[in-house]
Structures are given as structure tokens and as C-alpha cells.
Write a structure and sequence with these properties.
single chain, mainly alpha, 82% helix, extended
């Protein structure tokens, strides 16, 4: 128990120290959010995938795969491959239009009305979900 707590405390202290030391290198929020656009799309894609993966994925998915006769594996492989296409297409477009979000991209590419419409559709679908 003490070892577990020590590891968690060490982890949080390490994260705080690294964040403090790195914070002096960045001049504004844009540098913090998008790394001054110096990160290639593939690295951003890997970061997104790593963020999506959680302990529940490692614990729960083997059980789902066993119960559903590995049907979930098809979905996983398809979504994994689709991330490369989506990452290449969208992240490259975000960089080209200097956008931070999909809504920022829609505004710069198609105008304010498109951004508002997309925002409303997102909110309505999330409420209905």
C-alpha cells in the first residue's frame, strides 16, 4: 500500500516539475496547445490514440472480445486504420488554415454560419444521445 501511494505521489510531483520547467519555454497559449505547429501529423495522431486508451480498454475489451466472438476486433482494426486517414486529412487542414479546433476550421474555411450550424448540430446530437 505504501509503495503504491509513493509511486502515485512521485508521478504527480514529476508531472508538476516537468510542467513548471517546460512552461518557461512557451510564450503564449497557441504554443502550449499546438506546440507552435512543429509537431508532425503522425505524432499528433499517436497522441490522440494514446489519450483514448485507458485502463478500462485493457481490462474490458478482452472480455468483450471473448463474449462477442471477436466481432469487436473488426471495429478496432477499422477505426485504427481510419485514424491514420483522418489524422492526415484533418490535422494537415488544421495546420493549413491555422485552426485549433474543427469549429475554428469551419469558420475560416466556410464562414461563421457554418461554424454556428455545426456547433448546434453537435449540441443537439449530444443532448439526444
Amino acid at each position: 500500500m505504501i509503495l503504491d501511494i509513493s509511486i502515485v505521489i512521485f508521478y504527480f510531483i514529476t508531472i508538476l516539475v516537468v510542467a513548471y520547467l517546460k512552461s518557461h519555454d512557451e510564450k503564449d497559449t497557441k504554443e502550449f496547445v499546438v506546440g507552435n505547429r512543429q509537431i508532425p501529423w503522425f505524432a499528433v495522431l499517436c497522441s490522440i490514440v494514446a489519450t483514448e486508451i485507458s485502463a478500462a480498454t485493457f481490462i474490458g475489451l478482452p472480455a468483450v472480445g471473448y463474449q462477442e466472438n471477436m466481432n469487436y476486433l473488426q471495429f478496432f482494426i477499422g477505426s485504427f486504420l481510419a485514424r491514420f486517414a483522418i489524422g492526415f486529412i484533418f490535422i494537415t487542414a488544421y495546420y493549413k488554415f491555422d485552426a485549433l479546433t474543427v469549429y475554428d476550421y469551419l469558420k475560416k474555411r466556410f464562414g461563421e454560419q457554418t461554424r454556428v450550424t455545426a456547433t448546434l448540430f453537435f449540441l443537439v446530437t449530444r443532448i439526444l444521445a
